[in-house]
Structure formats: C-alpha cells, structure tokens
Amino acid sequence: MQSLLGMVTVMGNWDLLAGLEVRIDGYDLEGRTRIIHHDFNRMTSTFVLHGGGEEGRGEDVCYWPTVQQGQLDRGPYLPLEGTFTLAEFSEHVAGLDLFPTPPHFPADDLNYRRWALESAAADLALRQAGTTLHELLGLTLEPVRFVVSFSLGEPPSLEPITRRLASYPDLRFKLDAVPAWQRDGEKLIEALADSGRLDAVDFKGTYKGTPVDVETVPEFYRRCAEALPDVWLEDPDLTDPEADAALEPYRDRITWDEPIRSVADIEGLSFQPRALNLKPSRFGSWQELFATYEYCDRESIALYGGGQTELSVGRGQNQLLAAMFHPDAPNDVAPPGYDRDDFPERGLEPSPLEPRPEVTGFRRA
Q1: pTM here?
Q2: In this structure, CATH architecture of domain 138-325
C-alpha cells in the first residue's frame, strides 16, 4: 500500500487568509462542457470576479447540467460588489440565496457553489495583494503524486488500464469498485492485484439516491479487501451490518470521502480513520477546510486530495492545495484527459505533477 505521509503543520492558516482584503466591482459567468465518456457529459460554471484591474476565478462543480445552465441563463444576479476582508466576504456569501430554485442535493450543491465564490474571491484578493496562497501561508509547494480514477466499463475489463499504461507506463490508479468485477470468476480482481498499479478502490457505498449509487455486497467488500491487501478501501457502506462485519478486520485501510464536509463529520464516524480523501469543494468555505486540515494534523490523520471532474480553474486549484498539504499521497487530481474514453496517447503531464503556480493569485499556470 502506498504510504500517506503526515501533513505539514497548518495551524492558523485561516487567520492569515481571513484578513486579506478584496475589492469586487462585478462578476461574469463562464460555462464549459465536455464529454468525458459515452454516458457522462460534464458541465461546470466559473465565477469570474472583477476588481482593481484584476480577476479572480472559482469553479462551480455542481453535477446537474440543468442547474448549471439555469445559472448561466440567469447571469450575474448576486450582490457581490464591495470591499471586504475574506472573512467578511465568506459571511456575506453565507447569507445569500445561491439557489433561486431548490438544489438537488442541498448539502453538496450549496457547498459547491459557495466554494466557487470563496476560491474566486481568494484568487482575486491574492492578485490584488501581489502574492500567492502558498507565499501568504508561508508554505512550500512540492510535486504532486496523482492517481487516475475511473470505472472499468460495462462489462468491466482491464482494457482501460492496459491501454493507458501502454502510453504512460508509470501511472497508478484509483478505481470505482462494482460487484460486476466478480462476474468472470474473480479473474479481473486477480488481474488487478497482479498489476500492482492500484492504490485505492472506491465502493461509493455512502452515496444514496444519486446516479452513482453502487449496490452493497458484503462478500464483494471482503473479497476486495483480501485480494488487494495493499489498497485503500474508500466509502464502503458500513450501515449494512454484514458489510461492516466483512470489513472489520481491515479498518486500518478504510478511508472516507463522500461523508466528509466538516470536522463534525469526522468526529461522527464510528471509528477514527487513518486517512481521508478531502475534496475542497465539499467544505464550501476556507474556514471549514482549514479547520479540517488542522484537526487531521492534530489527530495524525493522513490526507489525500480528490477532484470533481473540473473543467476549468478548479482542477489546478485542487492540485495546488495538494502540493501544499499532501503532495506524496494517492491524490485523485490527475490532469484532465487521463479519464476520457478518447484520452490522448501523448502529451499529458506525468506524475509527480509540477505545481507551476501563477505569479500571483490562487491558480495553476
């Protein structure tokens, strides 16, 4: 199992960022769409805040195309103009009606949109101040180790992995694990074990009522844990007593992603994990994200980062956070392209990924 290194100390980072001043004169919205694979047409919106001759960008990763298109059609209706500290801007955004129509999944959708605004405001404030996030926090940027994440198709096969390894032989993977892996008499699971290229499997067992729900099959959980002894086991459904019992001997490898949006969510887990996958957009605010970094640092919980199939500035921002806080981990922040059905056979950036921050702001060049 690839080791997860401890985090750098992050105490006081919100205090450093909170007092930074930002002037906002207005904003625009930009939409992007890309077909990732045959059944996934991704759409996101980018908030572009203007002020003082600079612009700050943040990406709304809400997954519903109708919601994204509705936002683009509505245009810049939010009252964001003014001069704020970032702490004041965060409070201001928290009081706004970010969804004139009810969101599909309030906890996530509201946090996704709020994070787009808070990351854009930080980008703008840092540019107006002539500095970068890592310089403001006094942190260094390290090359980021990443994994490539996708499913193995239907019916599942090893072909997506072998095709990518033919072009990029050093890749490592984090795969969506589905019970269909056992349809061939477990040959696929054995082949995955033999490949030695797998760092994590995502059971997606904590998703309920979403398009990505996966059936809970306790025997499949047990088989994956046994056959893949060096792999992290992400988001199993432990509300099922049989599934909980099947993975009880392997709790030191269980990690969480989908349920974690705050320190309170970590404290509410039935046992303390050794590692977590933190996706910044799930937290909504810088204050909550930094509080969670601090908590994990105190409790010796190692971290790796995750993305949300970003199409714009959000992917590079996630990569920069990984470069600051958990560079040598199986970060699910691969450059766009690796996850596409028609992925390019040449030209994608390799792992470890050079941080390459822009001269000012919170953006990767």
Answers
A1: 0.95
A2: Alpha-Beta Barrel (3.20)
